[in-house]
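User: Core-2/I-branching beta-1,6-N-acetylglucosaminyltransferase family protein. Structure?
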Amino acid sequence: MSSSSPIVYSFSLLLSLALIFIFAPEILPSQNPFFSPHDDHDDLALFNKALRSASSVHGRGRGHRRLRISRLATKNPTPKIAFLFLTNSNLTFAPLWDRFLRGHSHLYNIYVHADPFSDVQILPPPFESHLIPSKKTERASPSLIAAERRLLARAILDDPFNLYFALISQHCVPLHSFPFLYRSLLGENPLRAFTSQPRHRSFIEILSDDPNLPERYAARGDGVMLPEVPFEDFRVGSQFFVLAKRHALLVLADRKLWRKFRLKCLNLDSCYPEEHYFPTLLSMADPEGCSRFTLTNVNWTGSFDGHPYTYEAAEISAGLVRRLRRSNSSYPYFFARKFSPECLPPLMDIAEDVIFRD
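Assistant: Predicted structure:
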């Protein structure tokens, strides 16, 4: 018996190593240089807290939901739009956004996720007091998904009246007045906006016919996305969205797809997790509840290294604003990117007479 023990131990060790190799991706945190297990643990606690908070506000039954809203409405009955700014540089267009939002503070909230390892300086008004606890972000990594989920969670925790969540980049500018955007999304009856929440649509681009979809799907390795994400369910879309609250909560509750999309990319040229995760998740969970169109106009003509066309100061005009508003959806575009910092002065010059005149 004793003479066979080394053989048995060796076999057991080899078997254990084989099992770890096979099942480690499912039971251990992904090894991604831009997203640590510690970050994942912190975020999970935050998301669970936000989900519990939303559950205590809305309840589970229809009557319970009315009761909770009625009690909250005695304090402030106004539904709001949460603007989620994701940035790794200074908010150059803050003066334009300030003018866009001025006079409507009871109808919106602002939340800013600024990469603490970037060159972001002190945020100007009205953003300086709205910075959330932020972590490092990196292009073509799941850290951008995590940052966007972090923004959603903080907005849900902060104010139960945030009913829409608009993700904005530092290069985005508004194309309409705030009242026009608000009425388009929520109407003019606050109580109806609350009771109609189950019918609110999300505005997120969802594409299934992108010619690069096979390469993007296999960016983490052949078959890695299975079984949670079959190729026929994989989608691509714009990073920037406007989510209804029920879909924001769905994003925070997701664990299954996140386990796949947080994995390290092997082919960085085809891997843009933030453009895949949200369209895929919402298309699989509630395809009829999404418009499949984004409200942010992005010009990919002449794009370079994965970046869209950048508008320069000489191009700013009333005609450009009118062209950027046009959409194939039933809604016009409400935002546009990408603009160089030099565009701020000419945009400010036409703000009142063109941009905010609907």
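Residues 19-30, 60-74 have pLDDT under 50 and may be disordered. The two ends are 88 Å apart (CA to CA).
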